[in-house]
Amino acid sequence: MKLLELEDTSVVDMTTQGEEGKIQLQAMLGSLDTVNTAQEVFMTINEVDQCNMEVENWLKKCQELFPNVKTVHTSVKAGGGWPGVGRQEAVEAGRVLAVQEDQDGRRSARITLQDGQLYLHPLLRQPTPAHAHTLQESEVVGVLEPSCTLAFLDLGWAGSTRGRVTIRLTPDTPLARQFVLLCTGQRGHTYRNTKLLQVWNKGQPGEWVAGGDYESNDGKGGASLLPDLQGQYRESGRAGAVVSRAGTVWSLWGPGSPSSAQFAITTRDRQGGHHWSCVFGDVVSGLDVVRAAVNHSNIREVTVVDCGVVLPLSLYHHHHYCGVVLPL
Asked: What pTM, to 2 d.p., does this model score?
């Protein structure tokens, strides 16, 4: 009889804890509908995740106290009890989107999580998933650090995505700002689905590959999105040093060209010779992907299957994301 009373007390305690946790989690989930900024939504998602961990601990305690009862855990996992929504699941499920309204309607951009880092993808006209939480695109882009913006290009060929190329853009240069616009689609155009166009000096020092014709995709287009691209740009090297460094990202035709959105990425170092002017970025990861693309039999089969920027709002690590070692 005493054992029954103790067990009954345990049931009451666990039920009370469960109800309190349920109310707390539901309140946090509800608050996602009222947040106004990117910072607030990710802070709320983080709180939800912490609460979800408490749910898991509660389930373990229930199983320890009542090892023969499995219906509680099953109902929670099936959605009949507490909604098991964590920060990772919310983003990976496509429930957090950046949106932009214009005269033609709404465009939305996915925010994804990979390896503890947030990525903002380009704006597209696409259906908004049910129960999605939306942020204004301008607010999301507004949290980018101008001093060290990271952009990315996902390259693919032969029917599959081969890897991600991450580029650190040179601060406060018009070409870098234009690159961000074409990676995010803020002005309507984007590098998504553009082809790589041509390889120069293949297999030789100073090898480089070009791309970025978002208009005609054949090397004849790629008009500027900004009225004036003139600025203070660095060159690809210094006299007496490596003049053409692998990983350098530069303007193929220069700021005054009618095809100024086209870019080039150097894939092999070269000692001496011509300096590339109008450098506006450096590859910080994925140079091996670019080199693999260069070695593909037909460079025009290589496509930018996706693109975007890296958000400085990590859900796992609160460190300054610009502390990246450039490739040697």
From this structure: 0.71
